[in-house]
Design brief:
By secondary structure, the chain is an alpha+beta fold. Helices cover about 40% and strands about 20% of the residues. Helix 1 crosses helix 3 (about 30-45), helix 2 crosses helix 3 and helix 5 (about 105-115) packs across helix 10 (about 275-290).
Length: about 300
């Protein structure tokens, strides 16, 4: 019997999201329906795909093999759907955008508002990730676009440089590092560093200072709250803390190695998937927010370096 492609999609969602509840939210179903689909698939194939004996479900060896092949079917099904949509009128049924949480969200929201105002029928899904998690999701979910700080180029991808982003090393007013001239690395190591880690907990920010005392947070909103509470010090995108700096709640640290760094993020899409009307419109809106944009194939993301404060 041929496997149900919806059941394969359910299996992929459970593995990608880490559980039935998150998978159900992604698929707009209830968890019991997702579990039922996977059990029916197991019955059809005559093998166990998930090990449900522990606290978290995990793939069996056979399940890992089936999912690997199943993801190829899902990618092909998405391609067929995209082709059909273009034949019918050029609108894709859905688009997925993965954005690095360090980047300003306003340009993306403005682009989405324009799509909404223009009554574009495509369902757009935006996922926020961090560090290496951005590219992992872009690959594993076969997403259409990623807005990313750093990434490993691929011959099948095209990138466009976006507007430069500046990060500032800060702590709350009254923190022992604030007001000290020429703070050294040893001085930083004496205090708690705050950092953001991707959801897979696999990637550390290369701008971390390497001290023993590090608190890892889920996003920059939580990091800002921790900074304002005096928990520690850390890098923040300047656009997120402009008001805090202006009113003096957060202060720039005079670190000898540089209290600011800049980087150029990239908008990346796949070459092998011809853009439909919605993707083409979204790309044009996002590119319009990048005054330094220059198209390039497989260009590496430039390495950002701290600089001395002037």
């Amino acid at each position: 019997m041929r496997p149900d492609i919806d059941a394969i999609e359910a299996l992929d969602a459970v593995v990608s999201e880490g559980g039935f509840a998150a998978a159900a939210a992604r698929l707009h179903k209830v968890p019991s329906a997702v579990n039922y689909q996977i059990r029916k698939l197991e019955e059809q194939l005559g093998i166990a795909l998930l090990d449900r004996s522990g606290y978290r479900v995990r793939l069996t060896d056979a399940g890992a093999l089936i999912l690997s092949e199943g993801r190829r079917l899902l990618a092909q099904a998405d391609h067929v759907a995209a082709v059909a949509a273009q034949c019918a009128g050029g609108w894709e049924p859905r688009l997925t955008l993965i954005i690095d949480g360090i980047l300003p969200l306003a340009p993306t929201l403005a682009a989405l508002k324009t799509l909404a105002d223009e009554r574009v029928p495509t369902r757009v899904q935006v996922r926020v990730e961090y560090l290496g998690g951005v590219q992992r999701r872009f690959v594993s979910e076969q997403a259409d676009v990623m807005l990313v700080k750093d990434y490993t180029p691929d011959p099948q991808w095209t990138s466009v440089a976006m507007a430069e982003v500046e990060c500032v090393l800060v702590a709350v007013a009254g923190h022992p590092l604030v007001g000290v001239r020429s703070v050294t690395l040893a001085d930083l190591h004496a205090h708690v560093e705050l950092s953001v880690q991707d959801s897979g907990a696999r990637t550390d920010d290369r701008h971390m200072f390497g001290g023993e005392r590090v608190f890892l947070l889920s996003d920059f909103g939580a990091k800002r709250e921790a900074l304002l509470a005096g928990v520690g010090f850390g890098w923040m995108p300047r656009d997120r803390i402009e008001a805090d700096l202006a009113c003096g709640h957060l202060c720039e640290i005079d670190y000898v190695g540089g209290s600011r760094y800049r980087f150029i993020p990239h908008l990346v899409r796949r070459d092998g998937r011809p853009p439909g009307r919605a993707l083409a419109r979204l790309l044009s809106l996002l590119a319009a927010a990048a005054p330094v944009a220059t198209a390039s194939r497989t260009r590496s993301s430039p390495k950002s370096r701290p600089r001395r404060r002037t």
